[in-house]
Specification:
With about 70 residues, the protein is mainly alpha-helical. The protein has a domain at about 20-68. Helices cover about 60% and strands about 0% of the residues. The chain has four helices and no strands. The chain has helices at about 1-10, 25-45, 50-55, 65. Helix 1 (about 1-10) packs antiparallel against helix 2. The longest helix is centred in the middle third of the chain and has 18 residues, at about 25-45. The radius of gyration is 12 Å and the shape is globular. The N and C termini lie far apart (about 25 Å). The mean pLDDT is about 80.
Length: about 70
């Protein structure tokens, strides 16, 4: 599972220019949700798997924390 995690992060985590984004924007939350959904699909987890479990499987760093 570690190899799949590395690949998913390599392909889904290139947020160039994110330092300039407005964190208070509501679209950041939509991006975080879409990222977690992509991870669920990539790992073949059920749709109702809690977001906290997804973050734990992805080394515990959420996308929002990555932007901060």
């Amino acid at each position: 599972m570690q190899d799949e995690t590395k690949l998913l992060k390599a392909y889904f985590s290139s947020f160039y220019g994110s330092e300039l984004w407005d964190i208070a924007n509501e679209n950041i939350n939509s991006l975080c949700i879409a990222y977690r959904q992509a991870l669920r699909r990539g790992w073949k987890l059920p749709h109702n798997c809690h977001w906290f479990i997804v973050e734990l499987l992805s080394d515990g760093l959420s996308v929002f924390d990555f932007f901060m």
